[in-house]
Structures are given as structure tokens and as C-alpha cells.
Design brief:
It comes from Natronolimnohabitans innermongolicus JCM 12255. This protein has about 650 residues and is of the alpha/beta class. It has a domain of about 150 residues. It contains twelve helices and 50 strands. The strands form eight sheets. It has a 22-stranded parallel beta sheet that branches. A twelve-stranded parallel beta sheet has the order 17-19-21-23-26-29-32-35-38-41-44-47. β15, α8 and β16 form a beta-alpha-beta unit. It is globular, with a radius of gyration of 27 Å. The chain starts with a strand and ends in a 19-residue tail after the last helix.
């Protein structure tokens, strides 16, 4: 089997494994009874990459592998219920065809038990068995990291014995396919956007009272240095710091507020973090910080209680012990507000800190943004980051294992990566201005789930938005003037309301599973509206709704053109750059061919087809704000041609 290819992200010393087509098992279309393959050779889904890596060696989660009639690779599912749920979706057969053969994990004769997490463990590795002949235990105590799971057996007596011990009902294959499964998906991420905003508001509100604590000490009057004031002041009070530059480092180990009164600078000695917080409900506000140390990969000597056997423990120890303007360890409800930090390393670093608020902060990195580490880094933390500016670092905003974080209304400029998420689920990135990044504006990687990227403006960067993982919600963003506007590497995600304009490539699809819902977006002024890697036909329309594509406008009987549009087709992809396009797209032969290819599943392998291209922009106000609206014409115009620019 060929070795897996690797892509190295140079800005965080992380290696990401990219499962290319060369490493996958290709289905023989002529085989009616294929043998099962190794699960690692499938295109698989069902749990996150981190959850998969953290499984104990004796855990054997239920799996299914499916050979489809119109998809060239074997699809693997963690959890039989994951397959059952997916095949119930109305567009599933159009994307994959029908299942030719399904194999499932067979727990008969394996000595299966459940560990403390409810995960199945076995004495011997399970074999594969034909799904149609197996028996299944539903609604037992068995789980995967994604939730309750279905447990298969070839022997009915083994299934009954498992149900007697762990609960549940024994069903056949038909009942499994007809059952209803509660699964969080991209619609959940969409529906939680308002809830995430409310959580962020609550975090801001619960830290607001930290600015109202009574003053107990004034530096220069009651104590000579800030540190002396911290050591002597009662908890739950404010230390007021008058105008001036204070050359010292500060450690805060009790709940209190450091408040600058005027033009205040705290200047470190260039060898460490300047302000270190080790307790909850601390506020640092209205100060400037410089003199930060240059360490961007520490020696791991900070005691943070990390299990050395835990996945990522070495990474965590090294990065937690780096230098920053403000470093916070286990400092819940931290408030950093109205702070300006100049740093050669990082601006704000939080570890093990929940419900923190970073507000109206400015972090300026080194002259070369490939130096340093990050503007604000949250490591196993969560909070709200808002109304702040992060400029000139490798990572403007970086989240690692920091679920439910809200990053909103910030300006992120001139970094290597603007906003960077790893192993971070259920977070919201909203209404940020992200431009001038050397590499990627927003990069979500390592297979997370249910993140939402909404209302951001991403422009003038190499790659605009790369949202990885599954069940991601990408909506109402403006992506402009990039080499690649949107790199789609997700599964089972929703893309809607986005305006993708003026890019060399509007959207590049690299994900192997054709399970994303992409409708209601506008593509204007791109060199190529969309490109794909090797893979199946992707249908970017649903229930009579598609996207607006500059160049696709033809004759119409309603709001959508009467011919499909394929941005990856040799003819269609040139329509928006060719003089006379409005006449060409009305040609009967072209319309007949597009109609056929756009409605026959599997006819355009490695392509995108929109069966209902819109006659006019769907997000007119958002498009107008980009300045590209004059490039969009409608189905009803017969004389207009695109301009050279």
C-alpha cells in the first residue's frame, strides 16, 4: 500500500496527515461481491481525528464499510448508526449511488465488554461480516466518542447476551436502517450561532464587575512597584497604576484588578512573560506591555498537570512554557481589556482557563510575521475574543482544544495564519476582518466538529478560508482577492450565503466525501469559480435551489436558469471570461448537454454540478459591499458581456 502523503504547516510545528487518493482502496466496478478491506484503507468518518488518536489499544469501536455503485472508494463509518443516519438523507443516493455491499464489525467470539466510557473492548480483534445477516443491539450502554452506538453480532445468542448485560434491544438489519438516530450535524452548528453569541455576551457580563472593584492601593504612593502592590493588596480590590513606565515583571496569584490610570507601560526584561496570572477572576486593563521574552518553544518545565501519556502532551508542555505579554494558567474568568502588547513571541497565552474575555486588545508581533508565535493563544481554554487587533505574528488567533470559544468582531492582519483552530469543536468565528495573511486567513484543521464561520470578511491573502472537519457551518462570509478563496476539506457541512469574488480560484474542493450542502452562494469575478481534486460528482444544488455563478445566466422560466452549470467543465468554466457569453449560454446544444450531465449521478466524476444556477446574485447587499456587483448579469439580459477586469 502506498505511503500516506504529508503536508507540514511550518507555522506551528504540526504535521497533518492528508489521505490522498493514492492511499485509498478503489472499488472494482465489475465486482458484485467484493471482499472487505482494511478500515484504514477507506475514506472514513464518524468521530474526530483527536478522538480516534486517544482511543486505548484494546478499544474496538463498531464500524461499517460500504461499497457504493457510484463512488469509487470504499467508505468507512465509525458507528453503524453513522451509516444508517447518512443513508437516510434525501441526497445521499444521488451522491453515492446505492450500497452494493455493506460489512460491519462482528463482536461474536471476541469477549466484548464495555470500559468506563462505554466503549467496546475485546480480547481479540473483530472480523467483518455481511451487514444483512448480522444481529444488532440498539440503545444499549455502548458508546463511541460521538455518542450511543449500535453493536453488531453474527450470532443471535451473542447479541441477546450482550443486551441482557448492557441493555438495549436486538434488531435485524432492516430495523437498523429504519431507526432514528440523534446526531449533532451542521444544522446544529447553524442553529447554535445565536446561542454562541449569547454565551459570549454572558462571559463579557460576568467579567464586567472586575472593572468596578474598589481601589486598595496606588502604585507610587502605597507601594513602589506593581508587584509590591500585588503582594500587599487585599483580594477583590483594584491596584491603580498611574502614568509612567514600570520596568518589572508581575505575578498575580489572588483575584484582583490591575488598572492603568493614564499612559502606563509595564516593561519586562526581555527574558520571560511580563504578567503571569495563576488564579481566577483577575483583570488587567488599560496598560501597554513590552519587553516580552523571545521564547516561542519552551522547555516544558511548567507544571500544568498534563499526563505524559496523553496525546499532544509534549506539544502542550512546550507551548505553555513560552513567553507572552500576559500568560494565564488556570485563570478562569480572566479579563484582558484595553491592553496594547508589543511582542517578539506571543501577546496573550491562556492555558486551562475558562470563560475568559479578551476585549479591545492590540497585539503587534515582530517585524517578520514568520517569527514569534501568536497574538492570542488559547490552549485547553475557552472564552470570548472581541473587538481586538492582532498583527504580524505566525498565528493571529490560535485555539487548541478550546471548544465553545467565540472570536468575533476582531481585525486580524498581516499574520501567517489569521485565525487558526486545532482540535477545537463547537466554536464560533463571526464578523472578523481578516486580511493580508501570508498563508491562510482562517484555517480549521485536525478534523473538528460543528464549528461556525459566519459573517467574516477575508481578503488579500494567499488562501482565504480552509474549514476542515465535519458538520461545519460556513455562512454569510465575503472572501475576495486571494489565490484560493475557499478550500473545502469538510464533510457533511453547510455553505450558504457566502460571496466569493475576485479570487484566482473561488472554491477548491479537496475533501473526498461529497456530503457538503453548498447552496445560496455568489461566485463573481474569479479566474475559475471552482476546482476539484479526484473524486465523485458533487451536486451543489438542492430542492430547486442552487448558487449564482457569473457566466451561468441563460434563458429562464423563473429565478433559476433552465440549464445546469458545471464550473469544472471545460466550456462552462470559461463562460464568465468570454465575450458573447450571454448569447453562448442560450445555445440549444449546450443547454441539452448541461441538462443531461447535471442530472445523471456519476456522469461527471471529479466535477461539480449546479442543477439550479440562480439568474441573479442571491446576496446582493453583501456582493455590493465587495465592489464586484457590476460584474454580475442576469438571465434576462441579452447584450451585456463581461468586462476585461
Amino acid at each position: 500500500m502506498p505511503a500516506l502523503s504529508t503536508t507540514r504547516i511550518a507555522l506551528g510545528a504540526f504535521v497533518v496527515i492528508v489521505l490522498g487518493a493514492a492511499g485509498l482502496f478503489v472499488v472494482d466496478a465489475g465486482s458484485t461481491a467484493p471482499d472487505p478491506v482494511a478500515f484504514d484503507d477507506t475514506v472514513h468518518s464518524g468521530i474526530t481525528l483527536e478522538a480516534e488518536r486517544e482511543l486505548d489499544d484494546d478499544v474496538e469501536l463498531p464500524q461499517a464499510q460500504v461499497f457504493y455503485s457510484q463512488y469509487q472508494y470504499v467508505v468507512g463509518y465509525y458507528g453503524v448508526e453513522t451509516f444508517a443516519h447518512d443513508q437516510q438523507q434525501p441526497e445521499h443516493e444521488q451522491r453515492f449511488g446505492h450500497p452494493l455491499t455493506v460489512y460491519v464489525t462482528d463482536y461474536s467470539g471476541t469477549g466484548v465488554e464495555l470500559n468506563d466510557d462505554g466503549y467496546p473492548t475485546t480480547d481479540s480483534a473483530p472480523e467483518w461480516t455481511d451487514a444483512e445477516t448480522a444481529w444488532y443491539v440498539l440503545e444499549s450502554d455502548a458508546e463511541t466518542p460521538a455518542g450511543t452506538t449500535v453493536v453488531p453480532f453474527t450470532d443471535r445468542d451473542d447479541a441477546d447476551a450482550f443486551a441482557d448485560e448492557h441493555g438495549g434491544d436486538v434488531r435485524d438489519w432492516e430495523a437498523v436502517l429504519e431507526a432514528t438516530y440523534d446526531r449533532d450535524d451542521a444544522a446544529v452548528a447553524r442553529d447554535r450561532v445565536d446561542g454562541h453569541q449569547a454565551v459570549a455576551d454572558d462571559r463579557v457580563e460576568q467579567t464586567a464587575d472586575l472593572t468596578e472593584r474598589p481601589t486598595s492601593m496606588v502604585v507610587g504612593s502605597d507601594a513602589e512597584t506593581i508587584q509590591e502592590a500585588v503582594d500587599e493588596a487585599p483580594a477583590e480590590t483594584t491596584i491603580r497604576v498611574p502614568n509612567g513606565t514600570y520596568e518589572e515583571t508581575v505575578e498575580i496569584d489572588r483575584p484582583m484588578t490591575i488598572a492603568g490610570d493614564g499612559d502606563v507601560t509595564i516593561r519586562g526584561d526581555g527574558n520571560s512573560s511580563v504578567v503571569t496570572v495563576t488564579t481566577e477572576r483577575v483583570a488587567v486593563r488599560n496598560v501597554a506591555i513590552d519587553g516580552v521574552g523571545e521564547t516561542t518553544r519552551g522547555d516544558g518545565d511548567v507544571d500544568i498537570g498534563v499526563d505524559d501519556e496523553e496525546f499532544g502532551s509534549t506539544f502542550m508542555r512546550n507551548y505553555v512554557s513560552t513567553d507572552a505579554g500576559i500568560t494565564a494558567y488556570n485563570a478562569d474568568e480572566l479579563l484582558v481589556q484595553d491592553v496594547h502588547i508589543d511582542t517578539p513571541a506571543s501577546g496573550i497565552l491562556e492555558y486551562g482557563t475558562d470563560d475568559a474575555a479578551v476585549r479591545n486588545a492590540t497585539v503587534i508581533g515582530p517585524d517578520d510575521p514568520s517569527d514569534g508565535l501568536g497574538g492570542v493563544l488559547l490552549l485547553q481554554s475557552n472564552g470570548v475574543i472581541e473587538h481586538s487587533t492582532f498583527d504580524g505574528t505566525p498565528n493571529g488567533v490560535y485555539l487548541f482544544r478550546s471548544p465553545t470559544t467565540v472570536v468575533r468582531s476582531n481585525t486580524v492582519t498581516n499574520n501567517q495564519l489569521g485565525i487558526h483552530l486545532m482540535h477545537t469543536d463547537d466554536s464560533l468565528l463571526a464578523d472578523n476582518e481578516v486580511h493580508g495573511q501570508a498563508n491562510t486567513g482562517v484555517y480549521i484543521m485536525t478534523g473538528p466538529e460543528r464549528n461556525a464561520i459566519v459573517g467574516n470578511t477575508i481578503r488579500d491573502t494567499d488562501t482565504g478560508l480552509t474549514p476542515g472537519g465535519s458538520d461545519t457551518y460556513v455562512a454569510d462570509n465575503r472572501i475576495a482577492n486571494t489565490s484560493v478563496g475557499l478550500r473545502i476539506d469538510t464533510a457533511s457541512s453547510i455553505y450558504e450565503g457566502n460571496v466569493i469574488v475576485g479570487n484566482e480560484v473561488g472554491a477548491d474542493v479537496t475533501g473526498m466525501l461529497p456530503t457538503n450542502r453548498v447552496i445560496g452562494n455568489d461566485f463573481v469575478g474569479n479566474g475559475e469559480h471552482a476546482t476539484t481534486a479526484t473524486g465523485p460528482l458533487r451536486i451543489w444544488s438542492d430542492e430547486g435551489e442552487g448558487n449564482y455563478w457569473q457566466g451561468a445566466a441563460g434563458v429562464a422560466s423563473g429565478d433559476y436558469a433552465d440549464r445546469s452549470y458545471t464550473p469544472t467543465d471545460d466550456v462552462d468554466k470559461r463562460l464568465h471570461t468570454t465575450d458573447g457569453t450571454p448569447t453562448l449560454v442560450r445555445a440549444p446544444a449546450l443547454g441539452a448537454l448541461a441538462g443531461l450531465e447535471g442530472t445523471v449521478p456519476g456522469m461527471r466524476t471529479g466535477s461539480i454540478a449546479d442543477n439550479y444556477p440562480a439568474c441573479e446574485p442571491i446576496n446582493a447587499d453583501r456582493l455590493e459591499a465587495t465592489g464586484w456587483d457590476d460584474q454580475a448579469w442576469t438571465c434576462y439580459e441579452t447584450t451585456r458581456t463581461p468586462t476585461d477586469d
